[in-house]
Amino acid sequence: MLVALVAPKRASELAALSLQSVQIGENVWVFSLNYMNKNRGLGKAHTAVIRAYPEDRMLCPLTTIRDYVRRTLLYRHKSPTLFLSFHRPYASVSSTTIARWLREVLVSAGIEDRFKAHSTRAASTTASRKQGLSSKAIMEAANWAPNGSTFEKFYYKGSQENFQNSVLSSTRNHATSSKRKEEGSESKHSKDSRKKKLRHGKK
Predict the structure, then answer these.
(1) What are phi and psi of 133, to 5 degrees?
(2) pTM value?
């Protein structure tokens, strides 16, 4: 899910991520997407850029990928793709499987059924826009044509590094806001309980 959010690609593109076509740096992995599909013409290969996010290790997609590759290393003799099936023979997964995994995460997170795997692209690109990122940077991250209207027309609902940081910052801000609301609610409940006890004691 983290990869789908910070690298807003189609399920087919996520399924095509390969360890044979990745440039590995200290704080960034750059996957080249060399395959062709109906939505892409000739030209420069698309990329999926995954950077470190030191502000919060739990949200760091690069840490997640490194751990995933390390844990699945013994099963990688048959396929170079990043994502593998967790059932024998641990082969590459299809775009359908990627989409199903994303839907399952959305459901487990309590997201409404009407949101599907493709909704991650809309969610992450919209969050980045609300964080102030330009349409140009968002469209570059999603590999949309710079002179097209795909984002504005189909995805918007209300630089790569900036894109990832804006998505994860939005997530952290939302989590912090929710936590403060919960703490405020608990504090109010605690105060009300003390008042009731005091009134009861006076009686």
Answers:
(1) -75, 145
(2) 0.61
**Number of folded domains that form the chain:** 1
Q: What is the CATH number of the domain that holds 70?
A: 1.10.443
Mean pLDDT by 10 residues, the chain (203 residues): 79 92 93 70 75 90 95 91 92 92 76 53 58 64 55 46 63 57 58 59 54
The pLDDT, as a whole number, for residue 42 is 58
Q: Which residue matches tokens 């030209």?
A: 43
Nearby residues of 12 by Cβ (< 8 Å), 6 or more positions away: 37, 95, 98
User: Secondary structure of 105-149 in the HEC alphabet?
Assistant: HHHHCCCCCCCCCCHHHHHHHHHHHHCCCCHHHHHHHCCCCCCCC
Residues 6+ apart with CB under 8 A from 70: none
Q: Domain range holding 63? A: 2-202
Judged by phi (left if over 0) then psi (alpha if -120 to 50, else beta), residue 61 lies in alpha
